Amino acid sequence: MQSENNYQNSVSTDVDVKNAKVLSPKRNTTKAETTEGLVEEQLSHFGIDASSEYGKALANTAHHLYGAHASVMQLWDITSNTLQGLDKEDRVAYFNAKKFLSFQIAKILDTLQNPFRATYQSLSSGSGSQGHYPLFDNVTALFSATPVVVRTATYVYACTEWVDDAFHGKEFTHQIYSRLLNPTNISLANAIVDMEAGPYAADYLAWNFNSGMAAIDACLSNVLSHGDVLIVSRNVYGGVYQLLHDYFARQNRMDIQIAWFDGYDTQSFAKFMQQTKAEYADRLDNGANMHVYLESPCNPHGYVLDVPGICELAHAQNALVMLDSTLATPVLHQPLQHKNKAARPDYVIHSYTKDLCGSGATTAGVVIGEGHRMFQPKGSSVNGVDWSETMFWDVYYIKGAFLDSEKAFDVLNGMKTLEQRMMTKVINTQVFTSFLNAHNQIRVNCHAMPEHENAGLREKQHTHGWPCTLFTVDMAPANLPRDVFVRFFDALEPAFSHQVSIGQNNTIVLCPALTSHSELSSDEQKKAGIELTTMRIAMGTDNVKQLIAHFMLAAKHFIEPHAPGFCEKFMANADIDALYVSVSERVCSQHFSSKASMDSLMKGA
Questions:
Q1: Which SS3 state, helix, strand or coil, does residue 397 take?
Q2: Which of 2, 91, 307, 495 is deepest in the core (most CB within 10 A)?
Q3: Count of other CB atoms within 10 angstroms of residue 172
Q4: Where do the TM regions start and end (predicted)?
């Protein structure tokens, strides 16, 4: 008992009481200046007699918890200050020590389960009408090897002051409503930030939405004010065009002035930005802001823009940059990992629906941005951004386009195989486009071709210079009658799936003019390089040689009778076999040889 008293006295003396107050049910109104005072307040708050056996045991436990919390905060400070200087051996040791500490804390909570249930059952009238109380049953979920699917609309709150803090955004672990925060959703948000921002992940936050379009709408709604000027890259997804044209640009809505940028490189953007400033000087002089929305690689052609260069130019003009990086995925391009912060977009958007999930079974989206732009507790202001202007309070909190736990789990599972799937899709893209490009009556619009006008930016910006796995093809040089083309296109099933989405495991083909970009007028379609017979192809992980064989057989059956000699211009079978092996070896070598060396894994920081 004497040693216990000594422990308690040392805690009272050494504990940072400010940190300890976080655990108090009177965290915001406490007058206590010592741990003992916090314990006394806690027992009084719940009406527990401190002199009773129960009171003594509870007080002793509370002392340990307050002390443990102070020690954990000390561990966090030490870790923050020393982590970069540790060698790999120490990092492994630190990680496993803290992992076991989590198990110990969970074990303490689990030990509470039976007496907690017994106390709860003693309150029942015996009819069972009180129902089940699952709070401590959930503790063992900590040991789950995969993210837990938390299927609940609301949460039990600890006490009045804790839930008050939660409503003010000051208590992240005390979730109040799944429309705002859900553990599975947060797990996914953390995962995409780690993947996209890498070494700068600590500076970024993400909010997940029920679809890619919901994410885009949230980002635009948060950034834009009435009457602003928005520079938009020409080739954007048709749904984005419709959202901008039919909502944001309407005078009776947001009255946003859209300026369509047709180029891809920095020089073209610099010229266009100056033209835009001059053309809409009246708006800008009257308080409107100018911002930038990019899609790179873009839909439907897969072209890339010089994102770092454009970001630097935009930021020099105090314009925020929003980037839809769905088609890049973090495998092809990591725009938030640029060493020069000015070269990074302010927001990165993904449609999880596509490659990140990969199954085609879930619709979801995400916006990633710097922490101070995404969330602040009420009453805060950081870097000139008020808490009320952050995406959480300004949009996410009130619009309700959140991502539910089941979908978040689907995306998390899909992300595990993203790198391997993208490598296979890159191989298939390079093989299939090379096969098509060898035919002089097929026009391939893909920057995988070395001679393509966008190939230089692809080489400069994408990892290993790998191409976007979305591209377009047309057969205009063959002068096929519409009926012949349509019957050929319809015959591409089942090898090529006739679906409207992209990013799945199967290869998908569609005519953008009739589907994904049908919202655009004929004139806007032509400006976007979309003809009536343009085929958009989204490569999957299928056997690309089977795809090629089906393509040639369909052409032989439907095109050859109307264009004799068409099929003779296809690449020879043996050459296709050799092409497949050559491309596969090159891409695999690029991927595997780029992995960290054993020396760096054993010794590197």
A1: helix
A2: 307
A3: 12
A4: none
Q: Long-range pairs for 81-87 at CB < 8 Å and ≥24 separation?
A: 84/605, 87/603, 87/605
Share of residues in the chain with pLDDT > 90 (%): 68
Q: Which helix (H) or strand (E) holds 535?
A: strand 535-538
pLDDT value for 129 = 59
Which residues, including other chains, have CB under 8 Å from residue 117's CB and lie 6 or more apart?
Answer: 133, 136
Average pLDDT over residues 141-162: 86
Residue ranges and CATH numbers for the domains of the chain are: 183-409 (3.40.640.10), 417-599 (3.90.1150.10)
pLDDT at 128: 56
Residue 594: burial class (beta carbons within 10 Å; 0-12, 13-18, 19+):
exposed
Would you state the pLDDT for residue 154? 85
Helices (H), 453-568: 455-461, 482-490, 522-527, 544-558
- Give the integer Cα–Cα distance in Å for 181 and 204: 17
Tokens coding 246: 């039919």
Q: Containing H/E element for 100?
A: helix 88-111
| pLDDT tops 90 at residue 527 | no
Q: Are 322 and 292 within 8 A, CB to CB?
A: yes
Dump pLDDT digits (tens) for 280-289. 999 999 999 9
The C-alpha angle with vertex 370 and arms to 369 and 376, in degrees rounded to 5, equals: 105
Does the structure show a pLDDT above 80 at 2? no
What is the pLDDT, as a whole number, of residue 473? 94
Q: pLDDT value at position 116? A: 79
Rounded to two decimals, the pTM is: 0.90
Which segments of 301-372 are extended strands (E)?
Answer: 321-324, 347-351, 365-370
What is the side-by-side order of every strand in the sheet holding 535-538? 443-445, 470-474, 535-538, 508-510
More confident residue, 517 or 184: 184
**Average pLDDT value for residue range 301-326:** 97
Buried b (16+ CB within 10 A) or exposed e, 139-165: beeeeeeebebbeeeebeeeeebbbeb
Measure the CA–CA gap between 235 and 219, rounded to whole angstroms.
19
Of 453, 447, 445, 437, the closest CA to residue 531 belongs to: 445
Angle at Cα 378 formed by Cα 373 and Cα 381, nearest 5°?
50
Nearest to 363 by CA among 324, 331, 403: 403
Which whole number is the average pLDDT over 425-433?
98
Average pLDDT, the chain: 91
Which residue, 463, 475, 395, is CA-closest to 426?
463
Q: Distance between CA 581 and CA 273 in Å, rounded?
A: 45
Two tokens, residue 296: 């790179």
C-alpha distances in angstroms, 531 versus 42, 473, 524, 525? 72, 10, 11, 7
